[in-house]
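User: Hello! My lab partner asked me to get a predicted holo structure for this protein. The small molecule is S-adenosylmethionine, SMILES included with the sequence. Please write out the structure tokens.
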Amino acid sequence: MSSEYPTMFSPDSVFVDAVTNIMPEIRSRLKGRLTGLDSDYGLLAQAIFDAGDGDYIEFGSLYGASAVLASLIKNKYNIAGIVMCVDPLDGYYGREQDPVTPDVPVDQATFWHNVDTFDVKDRIRLSMVKSSDFRNIYDNIYSIGFVDGNHWGTAPLKDIRWMQKNVTSHIVVDNYDYCHQDVVNAVYGSVDSIWTLTHVSGLTAILQKDVEFKLRKAFAKKMAEEAV
Ligand SMILES: C[S@@+](CC[C@H](N)C(=O)[O-])C[C@H]1O[C@@H](n2cnc3c(N)ncnc32)[C@H](O)[C@@H]1O
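Assistant: Hello! Below are the structure tokens for the protein in complex with S-adenosylmethionine.
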């Protein structure tokens, strides 16, 4: 699955499918919790679909909600690629327990339990390190990246910068809100002639690569065809 010309981001049928069908299923069966609204996960689902074939990577996986969603979207819409998860899974931001769901450990046992519940093990790879360590070691290419790990200090900008080098289509950033000013600043600091901020709503910001250039190219082609 891939599109000839990507469009500026717009929530479409995959967003609706995710919000009405897939997210209620994840919400009811996932052990632990989800950290965003269904509409935020719906935007991620639409971006995964729009990015097309290729590997997905996320910094910050917690109990696995976004990783399960990414896998289910790839399975349902026949999109090639693995789901790479980067999270130390050693508690919640270094705390022994997640303050919202203290009875559910943030560890690899819970993560894999959820992966098994949704039967998506084939898709998922897990690297139990911080994104800062992962960024220093690995340099693979992904079609889409989801930044949802450390939301403070220089981490969001460094995570997004690494994604800009290693992602070919979409970067979805979570906790784009005014309680997380470092995330907001990092997103603004990442917009350039290659990366366009194509969507902001809820807790989500989306950056797309080369979209203006490709839209201009598509427009020029259409004009040329009509002129004949
Ligand atoms: C907001 S949660 C992720 C939620 C997940 N994406 C979901 O949809 O359920 C953030 C996670 O990032 C982890 N984390 C914290 N610092 C990190 C870092 N530097 N690199 C990767 N993950 C990190 C936290 O421990 C936590 O599990």
